[in-house]
Amino acid sequence: MTASAASVPAVSPALSIPDFVTHWQGHRALTRRVIEAFPDDQLFTFSLGGMRPFGAQATEIHLVDAMTVTAMRTGEWPEPDWASGPTDKAGLLAAWDEVSAELEQHGPHTDPAFFNQMHALPWGEMPGWVAAIYAVDNEIHHRAQGYVYLRALGTEPPAFYER
User: A Pfam family matched by this chain, by name (predicted)?
Assistant: First the structure.
């Protein structure tokens, strides 16, 4: 997070709120396919280079997204229990789908003021638009690690451009 990004509010939107939600849902659908592509016994165990297993990374994505979607709906940022979360593929996919449904239902109706207001998150204070984009960026970053893991396991990952 750069100081300038955190201190400059968006003057006019580049995307409508429904367009942003659609964009984010495309990323969520792709990441869901990456989760599905993992062998059940490797999702929470396989790692490379000292990185966390993809199941742990996907759980982080889920928790950040759930917190962000809640904030978009309520303005509150309840810090998740980072040590909790699903421990198997079926549980992760079910939790994933719950957040996607909440984003689909409530995301397009987010108060536009949310995006320019400053919010206190567990990792710092920032405008809502920066926090929302961070959730997408965090997902892309970890999904890329999942692609590397899948290739190392001999599994072809989903096409990154099919969102």
Answer: DinB
